[in-house]
């Protein structure tokens, strides 16, 4: 059941605190279920992926953006439209490679970690917001852009800002070449 | 201006207790422990009264020759006890109330931390800083 584009924004919102607390409870439960941090990170990534492949349709329907012509447009779209729409923050984008396929989103404020002061000592390598990486990866895959998304810096681990790195893997033009053959 | 701040759980064991290090800490621990009886008296006296801000703040629990002990209980029966130096020019009631309100706010922030299990001892830097700011006003 597709929604018409330009549909009026749903005026019922749920409390942001409820969302943040739910996410926190999810991560805390995963920490109880898995002993190793890598397992928790993988699980969060997989969950995020499942969310991302579904969320992309909602995003495209609600924002009715045009097709992106380049990777940097895509990265800008993610930062300025998607993050703004779903989390209410706008990270800044910077391109970190000469080839133009590595970008990083720098988040000053991360609403998901509002209540977490710091990671517990035995969970030092936990990527608390790994769900976001999975969401971005899943969403990009559904628009035929393979990407690797990881956390480069994390405020919870002591860095100054939270930085998400997106590396686009295959160039979209390659697929077109293959089709023309 | 407080010389000792304590957070006591519903089951009457301490979640957090911190006193000015220059004094004998055991004495404060004992004072807080004895004040719990007074807190329980006051709670049972209130009965099923409506819980509003005034009922959360219990006021002066009992004065000793050197100190005054104030109490505050939350809706979840977590108690905050504050021991204040009597020699300080009498702190106004409002100031004590605002200190308890700050404590309560910091406590709820800790409760929201997903890695904190209710009933654990409190090991939060933000909470420590807030309590320090309340205690360091003593010269």
Alpha-carbon distance between the two ends of chain B: 9 Å
Radius of gyration of chain B, in angstroms, nearest whole number: 14 Å
Radius of gyration of chain A: 17 Å
Q: What is the CATH homologous superfamily assignment of chain A?
A: Trafficking protein particle complex subunit 3
User: What coarse outline of chain A follows from CA principal-axis ratios?
Assistant: globular
Extended strand count of chain A:
4
Along the chain, the helix and strand elements of chain A come as HHHEEHEEH
Beta-strand percentage range of chain A = 5-15%
| CATH architectural label of chain B | 2-Layer Sandwich
Q: Order of strands across the biggest sheet of chain A? A: 1-2-4-3
Domain module tally of chain A: 1
Strand line-up across the major sheet of chain B: 2-1-5-4-3
Count of discrete alpha- or pi-helical segments spanning 4 or more residues of chain A? 5
Could you describe the largest sheet of chain A, including whether it forms a barrel? 4 strands, antiparallel
What is the average per-residue confidence, as pLDDT of chain B, rounded to a whole number? 84
Q: Would you give the CATH topology of chain B?
A: Beta-Lactamase
Q: Could you report the average pLDDT of chain A, rounded to the nearest whole number? A: 85
Return the domain count of chain B.
Answer: 1
């Amino acid at each position: 059941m597709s929604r018409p584009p330009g549909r009026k924004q749903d005026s019922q919102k749920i409390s942001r605190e409820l969302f943040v607390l739910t996410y926190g409870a999810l991560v805390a439960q995963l920490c109880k279920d898995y002993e190793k941090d890598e397992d928790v990170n993988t699980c969060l990534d997989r969950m995020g992926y499942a969310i991302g492949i579904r969320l992309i349709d909602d995003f495209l329907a609600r924002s009715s953006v045009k097709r992106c012509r380049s990777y940097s447009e895509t990265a800008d779209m993610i930062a300025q439209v998607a993050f703004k729409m779903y989390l209410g923050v706008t990270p800044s984008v910077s391109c970190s490679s000469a080839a133009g396929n590595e970008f990083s989103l720098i988040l000053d404020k991360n609403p998901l970690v509002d209540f977490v002061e710091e990671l517990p000592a035995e969970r030092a390598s936990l990527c608390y917001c790994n769900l976001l990486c999975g969401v971005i990866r899943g969403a990009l895959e559904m628009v035929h852009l393979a990407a690797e998304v990881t956390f480069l810096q994390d405020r919870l681990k002591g860095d100054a800002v939270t930085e998400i790195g997106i590396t686009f893997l295959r160039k979209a033009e390659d697929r077109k070449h293959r089709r023309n053959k | 201006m407080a010389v000792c701040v304590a957070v006591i759980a519903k089951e009457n064991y301490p979640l957090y207790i911190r006193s000015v290090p220059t004094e004998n800490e055991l004495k404060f621990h004992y004072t807080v422990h004895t004040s719990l009886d007074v807190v329980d008296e006051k709670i049972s006296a209130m009965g099923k009264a409506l819980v509003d801000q005034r009922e959360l703040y219990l006021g002066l629990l009992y004065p000793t020759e050197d100190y005054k002990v104030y109490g505050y209980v939350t809706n979840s029966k977590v108690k905050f006890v504050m021991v204040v130096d009597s020699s300080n020019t009498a702190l106004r009631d409002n100031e004590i109330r605002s200190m308890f309100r700050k404590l309560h706010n910091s406590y709820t922030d800790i409760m929201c931390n997903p890695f904190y299990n209710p009933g654990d001892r409190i090991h939060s830097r933000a909470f420590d800083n807030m309590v320090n700011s309340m205690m360091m006003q003593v010269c």
